[in-house]
Amino acid sequence: MVKLNEDEKRIYKFLANFLGESKEVGGSEGLYQSLFYSHARRYFPAKCILREVRVKSGFIDFGIETEAIRYAFELKGGANGHRNSLRKMKEEEGRGKGLAHDLTKLHEYRDSSLVDSVLTFLVCIDIEALDIAF
Asked: Do residues 86 and 134 touch, judged by C-beta distance below 8 A?
């Protein structure tokens, strides 16, 4: 069994609660970002939660920085609108705005960090009610 430190326990509890609610909700990526922040605030002070973190090739949706570790999150999903639809992901990849671009941004965040402990997450939200999978 893997031993988790207190920050890791908090982040995984937070993610489990966020994803548990998100899978029941059909909405835009912006709605998921609001849910993300709402759940993050239950586990982390507002000063630790960063929004639209700048990296070389764009912005990362969220950063959470504690004394022990830094986390970066890119969210992908949503039922409303062409850009946010997981069904349209291949078209987004062709325009350079899909998963490969998000992974590049997360890599840049990790490389630019001045601390050793950095975890990055690409969170793809599957909308159960619409029966779409990713």
From this structure: yes
Phi, psi of 52 (to 5 degrees): 50, 65
Question: In angstroms, rounded to a whole number, what is the distance separating the alpha carbons of residues 100 and 74?
Answer: 12
**What global pTM score does this model have?**
0.77
Q: Considering only CA atoms, which of 17, 2, 4 is closest in space to residue 69?
A: 4
Cα 65 to Cα 34, 73, 81, 118: the distances in Å are 18, 11, 31, 9
Distance in angstroms (rounded) separating the CA atoms of residues 85 and 30: 12
DSSP-assigned letter for residue 89? H
The string of pLDDT tens digits covering residues 101-128 is 788 888 888 877 666 678 787 777 755 5
For the sheet containing 70-76, what is the strand order? 49-55, 58-65, 70-76, 118-124
Q: Is there a contact between 123 and 14 (Cβ–Cβ < 8 Å)?
A: no
Q: What are the tokens at 45? A: 């002070």
For 27, 29, 73, the CA distances from 88, given in Å and listed in that order, are: 15, 14, 21
